[in-house]
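Lecture 7 notes: from sequence to structure.
We start with the chain below.
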Amino acid sequence: MYIAVHPDRPSPSLIEGLLSAGFRPIPVVDVAALAEQEPEDGWAALVVELGEDPAPSLALARRAREAMDLPTLVVASRALTASLPDGAEFDDFVLTPIDHHELSLRVRRMASRPAGIPADERIDFKDLTLNLATYQATLGSNPLDLTYMEYELLRFFVTHPVRVWSREQLLERVWGYDYFGGARTVDVHVRRLRAKLGEERASWITTVRSVGYRFG
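Predicted structure tokens for the same chain:
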């Protein structure tokens, strides 16, 4: 599978990780080059490394998704995660230093994303897919039986990864300003989500003691 990589001088670790996973990385400098250098079989995905100034690279990722519906993975340092947008520019991310096994899993997941669901109606995280049009969720090929609020909470987590959210913030952002339930509502929904995600994936939602929860 051919993987487009930006910038045109990617880190040796990224190239090594993609090559060792069986991908064929091709560096591209901009969206025009992305179109001009596209292989006959098409790109499987785009991987974008963010430097100290991430704005230009994120802009390229956004244009690539808009113009070519290309699944995009971002490589970022942990220091940059707090300033990353909510996900309009990319489908998934990995943190540096790059774990080659994780990189392989995430790129393969994006490259084999379910067909028939438009990019703007789908959110992917590892083997989880959220269909925004039907409010359905699947793990691999298995549907998840979620209530409406479980789905909404999971969608919020997936689109706002890494950052820690307090229970009060989650109540405000997911349930809304007019919701008068207590913080225990969040705990109950998190417990149910973990149970439905299963033992192997329950750790996606991490409890941060005395603060709240973090996803990813």
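Points to note: The CA atoms of residues 172 and 213 lie 14 Å apart. The first helix runs from residue 12 to 20.
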